[in-house]
Amino acid sequence: MRLEEVIEECKLFYLASQETTTTLIVWTMILLCMHQNWQESAREEVLQVFGDKESRFEELNYLKELHKILHEALRLYPLASLFTRITTIEYKLGEIIIPPGVILSMPVILQNFSFELSPT
Ligand code: HEM
Fold first, then answer.
1. Considering only CA atoms, which residue is closest to atom 11 of ligand 1?
2. Number of Cβ atoms within 10 Å of the Cβ of 73
């Protein structure tokens, strides 16, 4: 890679990681404030897994309760609001033919409402 490409990749990593991670932490803190019982179970779990010792990366996998809370925060407040793709070849989606060059956008929040949107 050229130096300019490495610099651009670093910028992408910085921007893609900083905003997402901080926003997730803020929403998670808000949810923990709203649901005291979640907060209690998360705290209990952290104390059980780590106790007084320093946290180790591998042990993060044991935090099942905290993972559930993080996933719920991501479900309720998706950080990437829209997925956008452009077709390069013709696609068939059910009965619909999508020619090349079509921009497809999927609002992530609508995934939560997929049951309501399904035809009955
Ligand atoms: C909770 C945290 C994060 C969430 C929810 C998240 C979400 C996403 C999503 C949904 C995409 C795909 C967007 C698309 O294809 O349209 C994406 C792409 C990307 N994310 Fe994250 N991200 C998170 C954290 C991070 C972190 C920590 C890093 C880097 C250290 C990172 C680096 C990237 C990069 C480089 C891409 C672009 C990949 C590509 O070129 O296709 N993200 N992220």
1. 80
2. 21
Extract the runs of DSSP E, i.e. beta strands, from the chain: 82-86, 91-93, 96-98, 103-107
55 with 109, same domain: the answer is: no
Question: Does the beta carbon of 24 sit less than 6 angstroms from any atom of ligand 1?
Answer: yes
User: Global pTM?
Assistant: 0.80
Same domain, 61 and 37: yes
Name the token pair of 16.
């893609």
| Domain that includes residue 111, residue range | 82-117
pLDDT tens, the chain, 120 aa long: 999 999 999 999 999 999 999 999 999 999 999 999 999 999 999 999 998 888 888 888 999 999 999 999 998 999 888 999 999 999 898 889 999 999 999 888 887 665 444 444
